Amino acid sequence: MAGTLNDVIKQLEQQRAAIERALSALREVEAPGAVTAPTSAARGPRGRRRGGMTPEGRKRLSEALKARWAAKRGGSSAASAKAKRKGGITAAGRKKLSEALKARWVAKRASASAAPAKKAARKKAA
Questions:
Q1: Can you tell me the distance from the alpha carbon of 71 to that of 90, in angstroms, rounded to the nearest whole number?
Q2: Which of 32, 40, 94, 116 is least surrounded, with the fewest CB atoms within 10 Å of its CB?
Q3: Rounded distance between C-alpha atoms, residue 103 and residue 97, angstroms
Q4: Are 84 and 72 in contact (CB under 8 A)?
């Protein structure tokens, strides 16, 4: 195992030497007055990004969401009036509905208890 580790180390050192040679060759090719392509740090805010959100955009979004939630929580009367639900049922309407449903269930139970009596009467007649 020690022999294999030494082989791996030797191979990595060879690769490092090859990379250093390639870098030095590239540095020699680059002339002192030549224009180079800008690096990602030198591109500035207008450079191509890979994704995500800029810090400025994140701050704008954060402020907009904070304002939205402040308005929703009741920071302004106009926003709270707009958020109120329209319609619904009044207390009197709720009481009337409750009484109607109770009467319906009483009638349903009465008809259910009368149904077996009718069936029994039919069987006796037959």
A1: 28
A2: 32
A3: 10
A4: no
38 pLDDT band, cuts 50/70/90, is low
Encoded tokens for 60: 């704008």
Distances (CA, A) of 125 to 113, 115, 117, 118, 122: 20, 16, 12, 11, 5
Q: Which of 39, 36, 61, 57 is nearest to 48 (CA)?
A: 39
Instruction: Look at residues 93, 68, 94 and name the one whose alpha carbon lies nearest to residue 82.
Output: 68
CA 70 to chain centre: 21
Dist. CA 50–CA 66, nearest whole Å: 28
What span, in angstroms and rounded, lies between the C-alpha atoms of 63 and 69? 10
Contact 36, 30 (CB under 8 A): yes
pLDDT in tens, 10-27: 999 999 999 999 998 888
pTM of the model: 0.28
